[in-house]
């Protein structure tokens, strides 16, 4: 499966990249990095270092996004990416070998789509801004996309944006750039959506942390354990800051949809007012394959298999 990955530099975006590099089914064609749930420079260098360290010698180009927003992620979350790029495990071998392109992530994606003869699978684990930019500039390129797997949105009552001017229905990736969601959903791309419906089933528990700790002699588990040590443990009740394996689930769904159940829905997105970024079900909306449930045990077993493959 030929895959292009666009992420926004959070801890689970970067661990998703690590797992993607261990998947035998996946050929990674390029990575775009947004400074959304991160800052773009450390998120980009962490991306290059993960490819260097865990990419098994493959040469994969990385490009930084120039996208911005009026609705930034909370600063404490964004700072975690500085710690990711500083992990000793990622800084043992210098200098960085993975090439950084001088064009933007959107232009890089345009070039990849323009040149491919075989349609590509897109994995987006942050806002859809760069894809929307490509569609606005060259709508015919959507024919080169076999499908989009997106971590974002939710049709549940409760989203995860707790901000003064938001009513709490939206999910962060959709809230960050609701217009981009609109542009992408108005296109003819096949969309698989991994929203909070399924990701609520994969919280980062202390049992998961302990399991990774026990296997830390293996480098893949050491990397997972250290990465997730950067996000606070909030286990007594779910808050705005409770961590789930959102992006990792979207990544595992790419190659292992059988650990999930899906359903076909029709959806739209709200692009202004207090519900900005809220995704809604409506009969007149565009078709979406929504990941509905996930088998928690099989999900964590799959992560174990992938982490074991790293060396
Ligand atoms: O809304 C989920 C998205 C995912 O792409 N991100 C985190 C994942 O990368 C935003 C987010 C929601 N809650 C968070 C987030 C938290 N507590 N810490 C960091 N990011
Ligand atoms: Ca993300």
TrEMBL record:
Residues 3-301 form the Inosine/uridine-preferring nucleoside hydrolase domain. The keyword Hydrolase applies. It holds the Pfam family IU_nuc_hydro. Coiled coil: none annotated. InterPro entries: Inosine/uridine_hydrolase_dom (IPR001910), IUNH (IPR023186), Ribo_hydro-like (IPR036452). One of its GO terms (molecular function) is hydrolase activity. Keywords: Glycosidase, Hydrolase. This is Nucleoside hydrolase. It comes from Furfurilactobacillus milii. The lineage of its organism: Bacteria, Bacillati, Bacillota, Bacilli, Lactobacillales.
